[in-house]
Fold:
Amino acid sequence: MTAARADVPSYAEPVLSVADLRVWYGTERGPVRAVDGVSFDLRPGETLGLVGESGCGKSTLGRGLLGLLPAGAKADGEIRFKGTNLLQAKRRDIDRLRGPELGMIFQEPLTRLNPLMRISEHFEETLRAHEPQIGKEEARRRSIDTLRKMGIPPTRYRAYPHEFSGGMRQRIMIALALVLRPAFIVADEPTTALDVLVEAQIIRILADLRRNFDTALLLITHNLGIVAEACDRVAVMYAGHLVEDGDAREVFAKPRHPYTRELLRSTISLQTTGLHYIPGAPPDLVEPPPGCKFHPRCPDAMVVCGAQDPVAVQTASGSRVACWLHGPADRIDEGGTARMAQEEISVADEA
Amino acid sequence: MAARSGTLRRYLVVRLLLVIPNVFVLLTMVFLLLRVAPGDPVSAALGGRLPPEELARRRAAGGYDDPILLQYWNYLSHVFRGDLGTTVSDNRPITNILVVNGAATLSLTVVAILVALAIGIPLGLLAARYRNSWLDVVIRIFGVLTYAAPVFFVGVVAIIIFTGTLGWLPSGQQASPIAQATVEPVTHIFLVDALIAGDTESFVDGVKHLIMPAFTLGLLITGVFIRLIRVNVAQTLRDDYVEAARARGIAERRVVFQHAFRNAMVPFVTVLGLQAALCLGGAILSETTFSWPGLGSQLVQYINARDYVAVQGIMTIYALVVVGVSLLIDFVNAFIDPRVRY
Ligand SMILES: Nc1ncnc2c1ncn2[C@@H]1O[C@H](COP(=O)(O)OP(=O)(O)O)[C@@H](O)[C@H]1O
Ligand code: SF4
Ligand SMILES: [Mg+2]
Structure:
């Protein structure tokens, strides 16, 4: 399933173009820099998997793209969607884009539907919000159509949310996002709350999106198996930064960034004997470590890593990686490539 | 698949059946409360005012010499036959108190609740929507003040201003004596009777008399409503389906009303039943302050007369009202919330 789409030429105009996006939350302890200088493009029909440990800023990035950040969060940079910078758009214009252009699928299907409203009311409300002149019959037909594609029978159209299982509710949420055929969807851990069989079913539906709807999808997950199955490209996030991104097959076959490599090693597979995990935890984003944010945990850390921010470099195939192992050698001071002393690692770890 | 068990009809029937044990428990409590008072009701009310043999005769006639279980049985069976007894001190059937004074309390509390809904819901919504803004702070202070200020104090201040200084509003009774004499009592709800008689002048007179007592009681409840609406709407505004609605581009107005407010009505309505007691209690204070001829002022009067039969009768009415109100609230809740099913 990782085959790149043949029918979408790679030179198609990106539907979404993110440049140097920063998002931070104001807290008593100071700003939490949850997204720190993220840039990427997404083309129509393309699926980008966003992976990384919990707390690395994946959800913040996904919400930030749709302007769904809580009060007290600030965003800066550029989110260009079909030519408009969403960060400068008015609230009303964003409302108009959410639904028909930008969609969101959340992690918790059980609480995302209004318990007092029938499924039909959710659909009719959504359609009427964006197509005020739509007739009741037309709204009904389109909703039932979309639901049927997700495997929800028309007989359940007027049921209430509590009459469905978690997996069915997630399929309803997906149908609710798809009924307006948005150009771009963020799916934030859409299967984390579901059991494995249901998960596989949802992932198949999402993987089919690009074929049936030509929708660009940002699929957030901490499950690398899902990325391998459903995504064209993968982006690895650590401490608010994209540390590596590129073609999913290429990155999985040959991870360049030590964090990507460690992440891949820590996933369970048939070959794995014993469970590998990355020691330590992602850093506190109020006071992240200097230089490479991963250096306190990196087995390959060098002296330069604790001193200078890594510079992203691009390979011929279009992958990017931000790590001094691959960085421009001329930017490293003399002696910078020496291994970082072991004590330093543990000291930094405790800091 | 989640359970698709009960239907609305099934819920309503079961809930209706639950009224029987509800009534039974509350009536038992009323009976016990009044029987722990020392002495019998006849001697308590009339002791020293009648010769001992007359007291004994009335005691026996009232059944107060019977064993306690028999008295209990008699009390229950009389209530179920609609016979609440007769007062000792002035020989008045308690059903008459229910009809005449109950009607006065009904108009007072209904209007007070309407006042509280009309003020409390919009203010609570605004406070929740603009939480932690200066508007929220002002509304919360208003809510605390209206709840904390003693009813009689607010009432007396209102009387001083609107009756004394400005002379706009009358300060006692349901209507002026002439209006009371001319309007034929049909329902005993004065405003309704005035309308039935087509007597506009008396109707306006009745409204003027109702304004201060109803607002004084209404403000007390308003404070509670503001808090309840504010807390619950603030909660639902943070709920996941509200964010999901925003993510679908539903307009903010609709998000606030259709999603946040409507869902906040579920916990709000649920605790409304508890407010019924507050409302009846507040009504007693408002009625005594404004000499409003309702159940509450009658209760106070009969307590002072040590007329325990009257007190027991009025308490029985209160108990039945509480059962009725909680039934009504559960019905309303079942219609709002499809998950409320057995
Ligand atoms: N509303 C918030 N206020 C303050 N900090 C937040 C808030 N939401 C998330 N964070 C912080 O931002 C960082 C990134 O969180 P998140 O985007 O949820 O990460 P992920 O989805 O990768 O687990 C975490 O350190 C988290 O504690
Ligand atoms: S920059 Fe240095 S510390 Fe960071 S991942 Fe690369 S080698 Fe490790
Ligand atoms: Mg997350």
